[in-house]
């Protein structure tokens, strides 16, 4: 986990807008050969040769997408970058640059923004992307963060959502459900803290799932792995909203149906034990939980030998004709239509 402590509280007015931008961005250097001009001019300049460029953006609003009571600012900065890099990876592209725009109220001292940018900086370093610009403005209430990410890939490598075919295999990376359960643990501890502020939560038994929630990683390794394996997915998407919702996106985009097998869904042991503790069905957690930032993709059956046994990849189902619809095949061999359900549908 990332440390998040700075006792000073310097008011933002002391720096002014340009002083603030300078202060926050001075430690950022650029390393991508494609970055010609980063922060400093009216616009950044990039040079990608004959590669195609992908671009994606996300807006995070305090009180809507994050709660500063349990999301430390450093983690938030890291996560704001990661969610965008995940979208770039879902195009089978390599992230190269980001911009970061913030709106802050005067409730935030300089030290808070330093924490935010420390997290942004860590993500830039970890993933080798350059911060090349942004915008800074005030807000009357709360904090808004918008990150835009650019990435590149050879034209023929880019994977869309709309080319999955019946009989293609459905594959997912990593394991699912951890981020949602991590949030449940953090929310429970927040309530405990309200009643007894001296109570120090013991999060050790939940370390993996809390980390999945607070410090998710983007699967930028997967496009590289797929290249090594000589597999080009027919369709791909990242799992931000929960497995069932993303499967339905792939089905709709590609005009196919799907059979998803409950017993194939990869779950970490901590997801299983914590689901039991919260009296949640772990399959429902994986289906509807969201924020796992794993990749979900389809491949031709011919490519199965190339991915077979790979520890990062699980085959969880196959695509069908569109008219057959999208279903979960349960352990008891019953077929249930997949629905994009909200979190509150998960109480078992
Ligand atoms: P402009 O007036 O053209 O919008 P700014 O004065 O807002 O330019 O920004 C100056 C430079 O600092 C630009 O390169 C801009 O992209 C960058 N920048 C502004 N705010 C941020 C931020 N929050 N994070 C990173 N870069 C920023
Ligand atoms: Mg500006």
From TrEMBL:
One of its GO terms (biological process) is thiamine diphosphate biosynthetic process. Pathway: Cofactor biosynthesis; thiamine diphosphate biosynthesis; thiamine diphosphate from thiamine phosphate: step 1/1. GO terms for molecular function: ATP binding; magnesium ion binding; thiamine-phosphate kinase activity. Residues 165-303 form the PurM-like C-terminal domain. Mg(2+) 2 binds at residues 58, 87. Mg(2+) 3 binds at residues 42, 87, 238. It catalyses: thiamine phosphate + ATP = thiamine diphosphate + ADP. Keywords: ATP-binding, Kinase, Magnesium, Metal-binding, Nucleotide-binding, Thiamine biosynthesis, Transferase. ATP binds at residues 117, 134-135, 161, 240. Its EC number is 2.7.4.16. Reaction mechanism of ThiL seems to utilize a direct, inline transfer of the gamma-phosphate of ATP to TMP rather than a phosphorylated enzyme intermediate. Belongs to the thiamine-monophosphate kinase family. This is Thiamine-monophosphate kinase. It comes from Robertkochia marina. The lineage of its organism: Bacteria, Pseudomonadati, Bacteroidota, Flavobacteriia, Flavobacteriales.
């Amino acid at each position: 986990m990332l440390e998040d402590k700075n006792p000073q509280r310097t008011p933002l007015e002391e720096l002014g807008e340009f002083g603030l931008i300078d202060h926050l961005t001075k430690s950022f250097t650029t390393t991508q050969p494609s970055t010609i001009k980063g922060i400093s001019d009216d616009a950044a300049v990039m040079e990608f040769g004959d590669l195609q460029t992908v671009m994606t953006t996300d807006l995070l609003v305090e009180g809507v997408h994050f709660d500063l009571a349990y999301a430390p600012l450093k983690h938030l900065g890291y996560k704001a970058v990661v969610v965008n890099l995940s979208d770039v990876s879902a195009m089978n592209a390599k992230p190269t640059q980001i911009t970061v725009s913030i709106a802050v109220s005067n409730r935030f001292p300089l030290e808070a923004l330093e924490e935010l940018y420390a997290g942004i900086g860590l993500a830039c370093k970890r993933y080798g992307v350059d911060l090349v610009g942004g915008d800074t403005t005030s807000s009357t209430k709360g904090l808004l963060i918008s990150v835009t990410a650019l990435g590149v890939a050879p034209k023929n490598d880019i994977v869309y959502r709309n080319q999955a075919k019946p009989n293609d295999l459905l594959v997912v990376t990593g394991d699912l459900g951890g981020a949602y359960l991590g949030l449940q643990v953090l929310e429970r501890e927040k309530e405990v803290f309200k009643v007894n502020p001296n109570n120090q939560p013991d999060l050790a038994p939940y370390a993996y799932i809390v980390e999945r929630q607070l410090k998710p990683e983007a699967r930028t390794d997967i496009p590289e792995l797929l290249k090594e394996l000589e597999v080009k997915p027919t369709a791909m998407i990242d799992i931000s909203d929960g497995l069932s919702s993303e499967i339905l996106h792939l089905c709709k985009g590609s005009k196919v149906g799907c059979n998803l097998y409950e017993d194939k869904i990869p779950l970490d042991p901590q997801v299983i034990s914590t689901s039991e503790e919260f009296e949640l069905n772990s399959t429902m957690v994986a289906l509807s939980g969201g924020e796992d930032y794993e990749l979900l993709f389809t491949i031709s059956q011919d490519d199965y030998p190339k991915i077979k046994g790979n520890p990062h990849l699980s085959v969880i189902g196959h695509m069908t004709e569109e008219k057959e619809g999208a279903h979960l095949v349960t352990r008891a061999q019953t077929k249930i239509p997949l629905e994009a359900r909200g979190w509150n549908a998960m109480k078992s």
